[in-house]
Amino acid sequence: MKKALDPGSSSEVYTDAVKSQSPLRSGALAKLVGISPDTLRLYERKGLLDAPVRSANGYRCYSADAVTSVRLIRAALSIGFTLDELAKILKIRDAGGAPCHRVRELAASKLQGLEQHIQQLVGLREQLRNVVENWDRLLEETPRQQRAGLLENLAAAPEKARTLPAHFYAAITKETRR
Predict the structure, then answer these.
(1) Which one of 22, 57, 62, 91 has the lowest number of neighbouring Cβ atoms within 10 Å?
(2) CA–CA separation, 96 vs 43, rounded Å?
(3) Burial of residue 38, with CB atoms counted within 10 A of its CB: 0-12 exposed, 13-18 middle, 19 or more buried
(4) What does CATH list as the number for 12-98?
């Protein structure tokens, strides 16, 4: 009976690659951690990942520790840290410092920003709900083959009603294209 492939850190694929302690070429490391070799090079340029040794033919060869490092980077990115923030934090850590309080401050700041965005999105949802309800009334009052002037009605609304950041509108547009 075949076992299902477990991509986790306790999987045979992971443990065999890491236990072997043989250097991992960039393609193998990238595949193991689910990113591209270009992303590994970006992490190197940003100072997040130590430059690997080079093989005789010029290939990048990473130690097994690089798997742990890349997973740390990906985890931090997943909660909103930027590459530049991580580079500063890891530089302090690698020099023997303890940047834990700074890491916590950054995370708290990101949480506060996220909560503000959520409030803005809630406001946008209410505005959009009101617009749609208003348009429903206009459409009910307008004969079928006649223009209801929905966009013109929107443009005539007070400027204050249209003041959310453009990236919120862009996010909605992307969602509707899917």
Answers:
(1) 57
(2) 20
(3) exposed
(4) 1.10.1660.10
